[in-house]
Amino acid sequence: MISQRAEDVPGKRGIVVAVRSGLSVKEIGKQEPHFCIAEIEGLCGKLVAGSVYIPCNEQTATMETLGKAIGKLAERKSQILLGGDWNMKRATLLREVRKWHLDARIVESRGSPETRHGNSRRREDWSTLDYFVVVGPLLCSGTSTDRRHFSSDHWPIWSRTRPTREGEGAKKTLSRMALRKRGNEIANMPSWEKSHQTVEGLLKNTRSIADRMCLWNKTRNSKRLPLSRGTIRALGQLRKLKRKAVLGRELSREEIQTAEELKKVVKKRCKEEIRARFRNWQRKIAADVEAGDLSAAWRLAKPSQKRRAGLGAIVDEEGVLQTAEEDIDRTWAAYWAGLYKDKDGHSRNRALWEEVKLKVTPIAREELDAEIVEWELIEGLGKLENWKAAGPDGIPPEFYKTAAPGTHLFNAVLKLFREIWATGQIPREWEIAEVVPIPKKGDVKNPENYRGISLIPVGLKILNGIIARRLGRAMEKHGILRKEQAGFRKGEECAAQAAALVETVGRRRKEKAETHLCFIDFKKAFDRVPHEALLKKAIAGLGLDRDGVFGRYLESLYRAPTARIRGGKTEWDCEVGVRQGCPLSPILFILFINDILDDTGCLGVTIPGKKEKIGGLLFADDVVLLGESAQGIRDLLEKVVTWTERWRMEINPAKCGVISPDGTPVTCLEVQGERIPDVEFYSYLGIKIGKSDQRAVRRNADRIKGNSVLHENSRTLTNPCIPLLHKTLLLRGVVLPSMLYGKEVGGNTHADLKECTRVLNRALVMVVGRGVSLAAARRVLGIPTLRALVGKSQCRALREFPKKKTVIGSLLETSPKGKETWWNCTQRGVKRLLKGTDWRLVTPRDASDLIWKSEETLDRSKGLERLRTLVLHPEECSIVRLSGTHPEWGLGWGMVLRLMCGHLWTGPRLAKAKLKESILTEECPGCKGAAEDEIHWVFHCPAWEDGRLIADKEAGLATGERANWAPSYPIDIVCGAMSLEERTKRYKWLAVFFTATASKRRAILGGFDLPGRTLGRPFRDRVSA
Fold first, then answer.
1. Would you identify the CATH topology of the domain 2-116+126-163?
2. What is the C-alpha separation between 384 and 389, in angstroms, rounded?
3. Highest averaged pLDDT of the listed ranges 217-231, 336-350, 423-437, 462-476
């Protein structure tokens, strides 16, 4: 027991830290009159505990003294528990504790928090003055008050506490929303200029600022509802009335009425404020998508899906199912260590690789070794995307994006990067990566059915991105990369490389020349690259040495890379393979594989109109060999096999494929004793390449891919409460890109795009509902037809592919002959879509608009005809944008969209479609008067007058203003000449009206479905508008 004597004043008591027998305790720190601190060691490890008494007349001085003492202890002891009588309210204590600039928090109370009774039985006299304060990652249950003891004017409080072991407990993460909200304040903190120019100093200062500014996400145990102060106050009043009733005191009639009103108000406010927080998160994502980050749309698609990688049960090497977290961690570490193990010991054998002859293309040392300048850092920060995962240090990209040029943080990061680059030494904090296992097909308990995604620190990603772009520019300048390689090069793309293959085969087919194709697949290509071989090609192959800045840095980067499973603590060495997740890895890999087609030119194919032969095409590790005969393709394969044996790479014969023009398989085409299969078609870069026309195969692939995309996003697209803006962004950022991939190489006829069009129509039906003219819905949402989008991408390909530095660019230097070439087929298709307009005279966007308009002229749906008669509103006042500004009226915006497309489900329409009783053709379902039409529903039916009054109030309409509207159709109120504010007000009125009356109308009519409709078939609204 450790204690401090009490003052010689009546009523004062001492301070004590007492432990049970069997545990050792010793006092640490300087003796103080108002607190004592002791270190306890026993069953659960070591724990620092302190007993505190803060006198009322010395609160500030005592808290400052305590903070200094705890600050010194926190440098050596990471887990501290303080408890006692603090003599202040919770908010005041929290404010004082934050001044310590430590990872400190107040333990939440379970049940009633009052701890001081003052010898009074009246609850109104009780107060909360006793708390537990935790510094560090202690595991604590909530605080409970024991009201069975009255030996003092305070009740005792207790909490179960256990120190955490290394790697245990919830890892604190920075709040992305807080970083974006207070980015300017963070970047201009003076402490950045004072911090040490090391990664450790950067991380320490970041945590200190996060503690000071409360930038951490709340842990799962401490999370509370994001409520405003007014709502919390109302909750407190409601709880007081409930406690009074629980204690057996009778409530007056006024108190009962107040409690009922408070209950309704609190329930409504809680729901609204939680939704407001979620909508604010959606707005941030929408802003990112509009700024060009289409990948952020996936956050809208799956906002609640979170992977808990590495936490599930897994089977070890002996087939035993491991369920404990430590065993799971060890099993994963053993599995990944086996994949990254240097099996033959050659990966880091420098002497072995020094003997290998290498072709050298020198680069000036100054091009790579120059000091990092400001514009390079600005470019690197601009490449970062929001919502990407943080690395092992827990710092997300949003933190670095706050570093605007000229701020203290920007200068600190620039100095740090320059220091690391000049010394060529990777800090220990940046050598480790975290692997996230992502399940593939098969049993989720089998580690082999996972693929790993490595996460490296974002700071290292920025620095390596700067070096990667510098290296890429130098390699392009000196022509080091061969023209057959298109992977990971600036301005190159998969579709262009696939077009080069189709163009080559088409030109030779015109001359009736055979072309044999052999597609090569490597086993774990990026994960099996020997380190010293990679360094030799990246340093000596460029005429550099390891004493230079670039050589030292690259050697340090691959000296001792380690990794661990995310959430685990067992590390393993990465003895082979490029560093996954690193921006340098792709360009280093294409440099490593750059010489695989050396000395194959004489064995390749001759292209009509070109003098040189082409032996193959490369896109990173995707290799396709081209031979004029079976023997030619066999000789090419032998060259590739020789290269793999020299550089310790492996080919996977089962995933390779050979396409022969005459249909007869190429005999004796084997690798490592396994025969390469002869196939009808092969998926090259995600595009089907075959012996003949593969349109049927491609259409089937489009159908499968489209169904998968719709299945993943159907819940979001069909949710009526999600704004139209977010659904439109989801269509543009997720659904359409998956449908348009590779269409530069395919056809653009109705037959070619049949399955993709069906998928897009199904997605539109999910957004706008059934019965609406899809042509009108596309126009309102701003989503062109699929043929217009394909025409745009093909027009862009015709403009851009001849400018490429790879094979496709050299092929298109001369005009090809033959109908089967990619160039001529695409030209004919685009000309057909443009109705004879020369594609050279229009931009791709203009081409899309022309095709879209020409297709709309063939559409005779009444919804589209109705939309054409409207005076179109400006873009800034579209309902799509307004739905993002006011997402609380999501259901109403959907009804306004249907109204603009000329199809509301009025009573006669429901009866005619046989969805409701035939009486609705003659009787209004609301007022039971004459038959219902849109004007009666929206403006005249007395059953919906409450909704109109609510809409008047929300939209800010003056009394009698609505009486001046005299539309022939409801949507006419937003047409014609009027100011932007007036048009916006009327749109809001319609949205609020439909939202306010939706539940009542549903109660009267009930739900209904459209029987006999095929969801994927684009049908037209045949009911009169």
1. Deoxyribonuclease I; Chain A (3.60.10)
2. 11
3. 462-476
